Amino acid sequence: MGLYTSPFGNGVATGSGGNVVTASGSPHNYFGPRDTGGTAGVLKVEGLTEQLIINLDGTMFNDGVDAGLVNYVIPAGAIIKAAYIDVEEAFALSGSDTLAVEVGTASTEATNGFTITEAQIEATASVNLTSALSGTWDAEAPLAADTTVAIVLSGTNPVITDAGKARITIVYDRANLGL
Question: What's the CA gap between 70 and 30, in Å, rounded?
Fold first, then answer.
């Protein structure tokens, strides 16, 4: 299915229910598939609670860019509450030793963040990873500084194929800065 565009309204400002006059550059509905792999964004849930949602795919590790950085910073004062992964399409890891995917503070992911095991990333399932939170992410205390999130492979000579799609959700309470 290709992308289909339809204008809002019926081109009439008043009368038959149209409230948007369509013209060049006016708003439109878009229907059809969108590529969402390799993206990250925040969803405000309730009160101070927010969810960082990372759409992860195998190509993020193999496309020649710094695959570790997610380009998102959890603000200082935030308290990490939970972490989840929903694997839609199984990943394929290879290498030796204990292979895993580490998600956490850039450059200290293994000690400040959480681990997704090889078995978890290679199976299509939804997993609550809250019990795997470690270091500053598990302290139930506010983060001392702005925290850049990164995702890296761990183990000896880890390799991941381009196959695989998952959504990682990190739930945190944002600091009330009196704003």
Answer: 27
C-alpha 160 chain-centroid distance: 18
Task: Determine the structural domain holding residue 149 and report its residue range.
Answer: 36-173
* One domain for residues 1 and 43: no
44 CB neighbour count, 10 Å cutoff: 10
Do 131 and 56 belong together in one domain?
Answer: yes
| Total of domains in the chain | 2
pLDDT score for 156: 87
Predicted model pTM: 0.73
Query: What is the spatial distance between Cα 49 and Cα 43, in angstroms, rounded to a whole number?
Result: 9
pLDDT value of position 80: 95
User: CB–CB of 73/132 below 8 Å?
Assistant: no
Q: Is pLDDT larger for residue 52 or for residue 32?
A: 52
